[in-house]
Amino acid sequence: MPNEHRLEEQFLSQEAEKQISNQLDEVEQIEIDVKTDLLKILQGQADGVAVAGQGLVIKEDIRVQEIKLQTDSIDINPFSALFGQIELNEAVNAIARIVLTEVDMNRTLASDFVRSRMPNYDLDVDGEIVSFEPQQIQVFLPGDGKIECKGRVLLKEKGKTRPLAYTAVFCPRTHSQPAMLEGFNCTEGEGVSVELVTALMQKVKELMNIPSFKWEDMAFKIKDIKVEKGSLILLVETQMKQIPSSITELSL
Asked: Which class does domain 115-208 fall in?
């Protein structure tokens, strides 16, 4: 009966909200809507899960302003579901809309969690390997679809290491246009050779055109990016082997 079904949905939804809220450092608002009924639960099925959250914080410095996520129909563990836990028996597809603010992005980039995971990049410059070790990066969202980055790196070439500061302006890849690098300037240091700039631009192009990413039990693809003044909006398709312990993992 509809009322009974709705009570079952409310129970699962409320328990899922409690679980995720307990795993977040901060949360302004979180709503989870599980579409199912008792018969489907016993069969290990649900029509889908919708998640909407605002002001979600994990690991103290990683914050998402807003996220909305909707899954397809899912195959769940019926015994866990009866106790308010959603465990997937099979991978599920989902689509998410994520809003990040300029302030939150810079807070995340400055966090120990992200800084400790920043990769070094090796470039082949006329047969010689030149390494970049990121030290600091700030992001600015002036609007007009542009992203400005300011940062510092340690440049290692020919057995020597020296600091280099830079600014870069680019337009990210969207569903209607490829990624475009509008400018790159060295603001501190001795500058770089034309050959190194060419190799660096090629690496930046590769990074901006990566088709998909993986994070733990998720694979996701950025379908569209919208840059507004002060905020970045991502439309992401994901395939999850498990519902993330913290839905903000989608923004990393």
From this structure: alpha beta
